[in-house]
Design goal:
Strand content: 5-15%
Number of helices: 29
Structural class: alpha/beta
Shape: elongated
Number of strands: 19
Strand order of the largest sheet: 8-11-14-4-15
Helix content: 40-55%
Largest sheet: 5 strands, parallel
Radius of gyration: 34 Å
Amino acid sequence: MKGQQIISLVAQQQDLDQFRKKNWEGTFQEYLDLVAENPKVTRNAFQRLYDMIISHGYETYEVSRGEKRVHYHFFDDPFDNGHDAVFGLDEHLESLVNAFKSAARGYGIEKRVLLLHGPVGSSKSTIARLLKKGLEKYSETDEGALYTLGWLDEESGEVHWCPMNEEPLHIIPHRFRKQVAAELNAAHGADDFQVTIHGDLDPFCRFMYHERLRKYNGDWTRAVQDVRVKRIVLSEQDRVGIGTFQPKDEKNQDSTELTGDINYRKIAEFGSDSDPRAFNFDGEFNIANRGLIEFIEVLKLDVAFLYDLLGASQEHKVKPKKFAQTDIDEVIIGHTNEPEYRRLQNNEFMEALRDRTVKIDIPYVTRLSDEIKIYEKDFNPERVKGKHIAPHTVEMAAMWAVLTRLEEPKNAGLTLLQKLKLYDGKSLPGFTEENVKELKAETKNEGMQGISPRYIQDKISNALVAHPEARSINPFMVMNELEAGLRHHSLITSEETKQRYRELLGVVKEEYENIVKNEVQRAIAADEDALKRLCANYIDNIKAYTQREKVKNKFTGEYEQPDERLMRSIEEKIDIPESRKDDFRREIMNYIGALSIDGKSFDYKTNERLYKALQLKLFEDQKDSIKLTSLVSNVVDQETQAKIDVVKARMIRDYGYDEESATDVLNFVASIFARGDTKED
């Protein structure tokens, strides 16, 4: 019964109409009708790839005054629920998409190898994987449809399909192409996509074509009656329109892997090794025709392969063994790490490749919030079952990773941690958007070195399994893994670098202490009624102060001078100096007055500075009654324990802790109080 339900469930959701569309077959004449109706089916590989990216939409946003950037939704990975999403690289991805756009318009970049260049783990492979995946999905849609041709054998009824899936319009003789294109474009405006016919038949199709011409005494119109056209769907797994090449050991490299090889079993059948029917056009260049070929670690290629690569990029031709140069239509994208790229620059024999390469830098992320997103893809409640990840665990690991990638600021008054916060959009006194742009402009190689996201992911994974007894993992568990792993890190050989990274871990630990101290302080001071009373008392006093009035004592009923000690005890919490107290008090009263004119009431939470000051004041007033340091001594009376439990509940409710991690944080902060880092008196 269950099996029947499952089959019924699939039956209800399958799209047979779409299946029929993707498996369409017809005559060459029917294909010409399709082209006349929708010329875009004849787009070249770059045009199709660019349109594919744009089809997912984009948005323009401002990164600073006068500087705009484009975010392409394609790189959010709309296919696998964000599994391969790329974060924090909009500037570099914009350069990549602009290269595709230029190539799509025939401005010259279509004759280049697009080289993604960056350190290990900077998402070069992810970008290539996304492009391949996107092309596969796009070719399944009506908008991304493309077609190829085959040759009908009348005796057997079998169709011999083009091994390189080339454009069917290639069978139109050159002398007729301009006229045919004009006819196909006649129904469309000058601003619409225009059909242009470039390229010649591959050796197999050229053989079949001439065979038909001989059969019909040169009558082209009868020869094309044997042509069949079918829709193709690009697929890396099926080796249709998408190829991937990875260099192997130099002794085992063979250029036929790129351009195909002779099929010796068929030589006996067709009598010659130069008969295209006895050749396997299954090299990566052959099968990637009409789509994209990815070269993994392209600069590790043997020199013999580079000659094929140069011809493929510049001339859009490859040279299969025993055959003439053959046209290809495909995007060539490679990626490489920094050491190989430096070798390319220093090798004069590689000058031809350098000249035919467009380099797109893909650095590490240098914005903390984007780095956090990378790890939250894998380490979240949906993916990690049975283990709670305490707040700031991923954030602290990401912070350390970003710090290792940043160059020391030239401004002596700015720390590396402050620079990280500025990059992340935080505001610091004395620094403007222009200062942030200057900070970025003064760097030479920022983001091209440092700790890889893979290292961080591995160490978070280690922390998850290394503490089976713990229900929760915290930042210290992960930071200990990060530090321990440095001893055996295969890519970091310099002791000086390792020491610097350890020092940066110390910076992160100090920042974590400040964060959790602040959270515990806010949790202790999170008594809404007490905050409201304190705020009302403060407002009454500054109102009387600014208007030179007296305040009515709620207990005695007598009018008294404003409580200067109370007002200053709050203002000092946010560093308002004595000389600025009058300005600050007038600023608050003006703000309240402006709200009143608009018919709105004042809420202390809307003024961030005042809210923080009130919380710190309330914490100071209440911490003595909670005696947090008594946690360390393990001697807690019932009344104090009840208050601590209230604070713990707020930590769980407001900040995402569980019982275990909240207890750990309270103990940790208590130990800080105990050693005198934060005075309790």
